[in-house]
């Protein structure tokens, strides 16, 4: 009798374990399947984010190149046209203007699309450009560049400073009967922000046209370069003229 009860107890235990395995097994299998699918979904989401990030970077690079392309040609073509006119007139200034253009192109070409451009690079480019403009209007243009050497190694959006100077020439100095003066400055604020400004003594805000594609493109490039960290401001100067100020976070190139 004891053996029968013992045997029945073993059978009951076996059936209990078997029932537990049969009940829990599918749950464990479902849990493993869920974890596997969740891992696959996470991997797919990560791959999607990586692909999207890569596409966004490619689109950003393409957009930046397009914006650069919109800035460069008009100046180059205008300068070449001026050189052609000087050559046809037999002007002794033609070789000097051509030399200045070559110096400008040497400074400009490595900077196009260069994410590691520095303020020092931009100053060299602006100086070459202003030397060209001085050849074109020797009696109507003077300029000053005041940028401390300590700031020249800071990262700066490529072609940004040149865009401000071009805008000052086109909308400030050119329309002014007597021409004017361009002043380029840079400094660090107490909070650490890098501040670059281009001022002109031209016709001023009221008489100039609405800023064109140059400044519009620059605002877009600044947003791409710094996000919301950069600020571009236009203010009137006394007794006349305009000062354009660019504030951006400093960073070593």
UniProtKB/TrEMBL annotation:
It comes from the Bacteria. Keywords: Coiled coil, Kinase, Membrane, Transferase, Transmembrane, Transmembrane helix. This is Sensor histidine kinase. InterPro entries: Bact_2-comp_sensor_kinase, HATPase_C_sf, Sig_transdc_His_kin_internal. GO terms for molecular function: phosphorelay sensor kinase activity. SUPFAM superfamilies: ATPase domain of HSP90 chaperone/DNA topoisomerase II/histidine kinase. The chain crosses the membrane at residues 12-34. Residues 62-141 form the Signal transduction histidine kinase internal region domain. The keyword Coiled coil applies. Residues 43-70 form a coiled coil. One of its GO terms (cellular component) is membrane. Pfam families: His_kinase (PF06580). It comes from Piscinibacter aquaticus.
